[in-house]
Amino acid sequence: MEFIELAEQRRSIRGYKPDAVPDELINEVLRAGNLAPTAKNLQPFHFIVVRDPAVLEELCAAYPRPFFHEAPVIIVICTEPAAGWTRDMHDGKNYCEVDAAIATDHMTLAAADLGLGTCWVCAFDPVVVSEVMRLPAGIDPVALLTLGYPNEPGREKKRKSLAEMVRYERWES
Ligand SMILES: Cc1cc2nc3c(=O)[nH]c(=O)nc-3n(C[C@H](O)[C@H](O)[C@H](O)COP(=O)(O)O)c2cc1C
């Protein structure tokens, strides 16, 4: 698929068929995340693939929405801030969440290319996710990505126009 067509077709999917996702396809999605660029190539994140219905059930306590319950796979994207790049020469800003976001976006696009649906979920309870995932200290959950075969088309894309979003040369030219 042409890249721009893929970007247009990818939508957040909030309804899933119960069909299991083959491991080969899950691995393709993970590989796309693995190929994402990261600051200084530090790759300061971890992906936890949850397929076990018992663990999925526990995870649902962190985000009790029907579509989250339906997803046959949830990928928990965690950052390890101490392993990320920080802009020490200026303000010390840590870029691990930016890195994790790029990897997650790569995974959503790869999934769409494979005919799979995804939805970013960040409105979860991080305490519950950390407990259910048994995350050690220093590992933070930043996003939960549902993955499965869509049973709904997703919402029509609504975006600001480029004219509202893009400026040229300076803030005010
Ligand atoms: C950082 C981030 C957090 C999000 N968190 C949620 C969420 O908690 N629940 C949800 O249903 N959708 C969530 N979304 C999905 C957005 O609502 C969705 O991407 C946006 O409305 C655009 O729609 P589209 O993905 O279909 O293009 C999130 C997306 C991003 C990028």
Give a structural overview.
The protein is an alpha+beta fold. It has one domain: NADH Oxidase (3-Layer(aba) Sandwich). The chain has seven helices and four strands, in the order H-H-E-H-H-E-H-E-H-E-H. Strands 1-2-4-3 form a four-stranded antiparallel beta sheet, with helices on both faces. Helix 2 (23-34) crosses helix 5 (96-113). It is globular and about 55 Å long. The protein binds flavin mononucleotide. The site of flavin mononucleotide has 11 residues, from strand 3. Flavin mononucleotide is lined by residues 11-12, 14, 119-123, 154-155, 157.
The end-to-end distance, rounded to whole angstroms, is 37 Å
Q: Are any ligands bound, and if so which?
A: flavin mononucleotide
What is CATH's topology name? NADH Oxidase
The quaternary state of the protein chains shown equals: single chain
Mean pLDDT: 98
Q: What portion of the residues fall into strands of 2 or more residues? A: 15-25%
Helix content class: 25-40%
Any idea what the radius of gyration is? 17 Å
* SSE pattern: HHEHHEHEHEH
Strands ordered across the widest β-sheet = 1-2-4-3
Number of strands: 4
| Unreliable spans | none
Helix count, per DSSP?
A: 7
Look at the structure and name the CATH superfamily.
Answer: NADH Oxidase
Number of folding domains? Answer: 1
Kindly name the structural category: alpha+beta
Question: Main beta sheet: strand number and arrangement?
Answer: 4 strands, antiparallel
CATH hierarchy: architecture:
3-Layer(aba) Sandwich
> What is the C-level CATH assignment?
Alpha Beta
Q: What is the molecular shape?
A: globular
